[in-house]
Amino acid sequence: MWRNINERYNLVGSHCETCGKYYYPQRKVCPTCRRKGKLAEAKMPETGKIVSFSRVFVAPSGFENETPYFLAIVELDNKATLLTQIVDSKAESVKEGAKVELVFRKIYEDSPEGAIAYGYKFRVVS
Amino acid sequence: MTKTGIIGYGVSIPHYRIKTTEIARVWGKDGEHIAAGLGVKEKAVGGFDEDSATIAVEASRRAVKMAGIDAQKIGAIYVGSESKPYAVKPTATIVADALMAGPDLMAADYEFACKAGTAGVQTCMGLVKSNMIEVGLAVGADTAQGRPGDALEFSAASGGAAFLVGREKVFAEINHTYSYTTDTPDFWRRQHEEFPMHAGRFTGDPAYFRHVISCAKKTMEIAGTKASDYAYAVFHQPNGKFPVRAGAILGFSKEQIQTGLITPVIGNTYSGASMIGLAAVLDVAKAGDRILCVSYGSGAGSDGFDITVTSEISKHKPAALVQDLVARKEYVDYATYIKYRRKLKSL
Amino acid sequence: MRKVSVIGVGQTTFGEHWSLSLRDLVTEAGVKAIENANVEGKDVQALFGGCMASGRFIGQEHIGALMADQMGMNPLPAYRTEAACASGGVALRLAYMAVAGGMYDVVAVGGMEKMTDVSTEDAAVALAGAGDQESELFNGATFPAIYALMARRHMHDFGTTEEQMALCAVKNHGHAVHNPYAQFRKAITVADVMKSGYIASPLKLLDCSPLTDGAAAMVLCASDKAKDYTDKPVEIIASAQASDTLALHERASLTGLRATEVAAKDAYKQAKIAPKDVDLLECHDCFSIAQIMALEDLGFCKKGTGGKFIEEGNTDLGGVIPTNLSGGLKAVGHPVGASGVREAIDVVRQLRGDAPTPVQVKDAQIGLSHNVGGSGATVVVHAYKRGF
User: What share of chain C is helix, strand, coil (3-state, %, to 5)?
Assistant: First the structure.
C-alpha cells in the first residue's frame, strides 16, 4: 500500500518513450515495444471520459458499507485507461462519454485500527 | 520589509447537504424555528469516503493551482483539525505526498478547535518573514460531528480551506496578526470520546465574544484602523448569528460581514470556517480592499489578521469559487447522513 | 506429438456441500474417473489438478501433494495449476501436453474448488484475485462488476438487452433440469431473472453463476493405448490457450475476449475444423454476457449478434450450435477450479452418447469446450472427436 502512494495519490503512471503510449498503473515493460521500450514515470492527466460503468449493489469485504457505488472504466485525456469509482455525481449523469475529473478520496481501510488507503476516484463534471 | 501574505488559496466543500429541518424532523423539533434561531439552513456532509485528510488535500491542491507554483517550493505544511483520521499520524504528510511537495519539508498537525488552521497561517508567516522558508501551507479541515440529538448536530459540518503564505506575487498582504489567548473551557472533547461537550450558553459571552471582540479591537489598534476602513470583515462563524452580533458590536455593517458569512449554507466547518469565509471574500475582493479576519477556537483563543488586497489579485484565479462549491450539492436524508458520518454504532 | 484420448470421467454433484471438504470432493471425483476408465491405480503415472484459491478459501496450499496423498497414490508426481477460473482447463492442457509429448501414457486430471467455508463477501475478495488486485479489487471491483462493465459496453455498442442476457440463464437452467450433477435443477423464466435484483448493473443475481463446491476428473491416455481400457474413447483433437491483460481496463476491447478468438483460431487450425463442424459447445458462462460474447468470439456468430443468435434458438438442441446442454456454469454451478474439467467431461459424455436423453445431441461427433480465467486473461479451448 505504501509502495503505491505516489502512483495512487498523484496518478503517476508510465510513459513509453519509444512508442509514445501511456499506461496506468505503472509498468516495467511496454507491452508494445518490450525490450525496445523505454518506460519513464509520468503524471497522468486529471481529466478523461467514461467508457463503461456499473452500479455495484453487492460489494466485497471492506466496501460493504458504501453500496451502491459506481465503478467505471475511464479513458484519460492521454488515452490511458483505468478502473475507478465515480463519486459525487447524479446517477443520470454517469454514462458513456461523460467527462470526469480526478478527486482524492479514501479507498479502503481494513479495520478501525488499520491504516487508511487513500487514492484516486473521479467525479462527473457538469 | 518584504510583503508577506497569501499567494494562493483553495476550498473544499463536500457535495452532500442535509437540511436543518430534516435533522429536526428526526428529533421531533421545530426545524424552521431552529434554522431561524441558529442562522443555519443546511450543512455540508462529507461522503463515506471523505475525511479531513481528503478535504485538506483537495483544498491544498486548489491552492497550489491558484498560486501557480511548483509544490516543491513549499517549505512547511501545517494542517489544523479536530477530526483527524488518525489520533497519531499526521495529516500534513498525507497532504505533502498528495502535492508531491516533499521530502524537503517541515510539517506538523495542529489542534486548537476551530482556529487550528489560522494558527498554521501565523506559523507560516513567521517562517516566511524570517526567510526560513519560501512558501508555507496552512490548512484548516474538519468533518467534526455533534452528538446525535444535541444542538451542535444542526451546525457541525464538513469542509476545509488551505492558504499558501509567501513573499512573491502576494495578492493579500497580511499587514498584522495578533492573538488573544486564555484558558476558557467552553467546548472540549476528551481523549477517546467520540463527541464533544459544550458549556451551553457559556460558549457565548465569556468565550466566543470575549475573545473575538478583544482580538478584533487589539488587531485594529495595532493596525491603526477603525471598522469603516475595512471593505470586509470575516469572523469565525459557528452559526449564522454570532458573527453578525460580533460585527455589530465592533461597528461593522451587515454589508461588510455578508460576503464572508458562509455558515448559513454549509454549516460550521470548524477549522475551515473562518478560512472559508476569508476565501469567499478574496474570491470577489479588489486591489486596495482591506479585510479584517478574526478566527476563534474554543479552549480558547482568537487569531486576528489585518489584510490588504494588492493589484496581484487580478492575476490569480481561484481553482474553484466558494459560491460555486456552495451551489454544487445534493441533499441526503438523516439515515444517509448518519451512515456517511459513521454515527451508526456498528460502523 | 502423439494423439491423446479421454478414457474415463467422473465428478461429484455440484452444490453447497456443507459436510464435504476439498479432499472429500477431489477424492470422490478422482476415484469415479479411474473406475470409469477401467484403469488400475498403478497404471496412472501422474496427477494434474486445477484449483484456484484453496489458500484463501480453506487455508490449504500444496494441492498436488494433497491429491496424491488422499488418492493413495504416493509417490506419483502431482501438479497443481492455477489460472483463476481456467485452472481446470489449464490442468487439462498441461496433462494433454504431457501425454502428447510422450512423457506419460496415462494420467489423471482434475479440477476442484471448495468455496462455501467463507462468507460471501470474503469469497468475493478471493475471486477478485482473478483480476488485477492493485487496480481492480483495490477500487472495490468484484467479478460481477467487471463483467458488468463489459455488458454495459456491449449494450451500448450493439443494442444487446438485459432480456437477451436473461435468456442465456433461462436456457441453461432449462438444460440443467436433466442434469443429476447440477446445483440448480429448477427451470426459471426471463421474468424471474429480470426481478432478481442488481448485483452490479446491468447484471442481476440470476445473470451470475453461483458459489459452489465440487470436483471433476478425467483420465487421459495415449490414443493408441486407449482401446486397452475403454470401448468409448474420445480423442482430444485440439488444445489451445491464450492470454490477455490481467485488468479489463487495459484491454483493446470491452465487448469481447481476444484470448478466446486467438485460442479458438488455434484450436480450429489444429483440428482442421471450422465452427460449422462443431456439434456442441460447453462455454464459460460465468455471467450471462460471457456466453453471448463467447459465441461471437468462438466464431459461431458475428460480433454484437450473440444475443439475437440465442434468441433465435441457434443454441438449443437441434440448433446450429447446441450450447451448455449441461446447464453451464450458471445452473450446474461454478466451483472455479473445477469448471474447466467439468466442461470437458460434459462434452465427452455427449460424444459417448451418455448425456441425459432430453439433451443428447444425435450422433455427436465433434465438441468444443471453452474455459476462461478472470475477465479473459487466460482462455483455454479444447476440441474433441468421438474415437469409436
Answer: 40, 20, 40
Q: What is the CATH number of the domain that holds B63?
A: 3.40.47.10
Report yes or no: B326 and B12 within 8 Å, Cβ to Cβ: no
**Burial category of A76 from C-beta neighbours within 10 Å (exposed 0-12, middle 13-18, buried 19 and up):** buried
Does the domain made of C130-209+237-386 have the CATH classification 3.40.50.720? no
Residues 6+ apart with CB under 8 A from C383: C236, C237, C238, C267, C268, C270, C271, C273, C278, C366, C367, C368
Burial class, B202, CB count within 10 angstroms (exposed 0-12 / middle 13-18 / buried 19+): middle
Is B347 domain-assigned? Answer: no
Q: Residue B47 and residue A118: Cβ atoms within 8 Å?
A: no
Does residue C284 contact residue C329 with C-beta atoms inside 8 Å? yes
Domain that holds residue B272: 174-314
Q: Answer whether B126's CB lies under 8 Å from B78's CB.
A: no
**Under-50 pLDDT residues of chain A:** none
Q: Does C250 touch chain A (CB under 8 A)?
A: yes
Q: Which residues pair with C218 in a beta bridge?
A: C9, C109
Residues of A in contact with B97 (CB under 8 A): 5-6, 9-10
What is the second-level CATH architecture of the domain C4-118+211-226? 3-Layer(aba) Sandwich (3.40)
Q: Do A81 and C150 touch (CB under 8 A)?
A: no
Q: Which residues of A touch C246 (CB under 8 A)?
A: none
pLDDT attached to residue B346: 59
Alpha-carbon distance B165 to B183, whole Å? 29
One domain for residues B335 and B246: no
What tens digit of pLDDT does each residue of B257-287 get? Answer: 999 999 999 999 999 999 999 999 999 999 9
Nearest alpha-carbon partner for C262 in C246, C242, C277, C283: C242
- State the catalytic residue, choosing from C17, C51, C85, C370: C85
Residues B282, B237 share a domain:
yes
- For A28, the domain range is 2-43
CA dist B133 and B121 (Å) reads 13
pLDDT of residue B325: 98
Average pLDDT over residues C348-356: 98
Residues of A in contact with C200 (CB under 8 A): 54-58, 71
Give yes or no for a contact between C239 and C131, defined as CB atoms under 8 angstroms apart.
no
Nearest Cα residue in chain C from A84: C139
Do the beta carbons of residue B24 and residue A75 sit within 8 Å?
A: no
Task: Give me the number of domains chain B comprises.
Answer: 2
Reported pTM: 0.92
Q: Is residue B345 part of a domain?
A: no
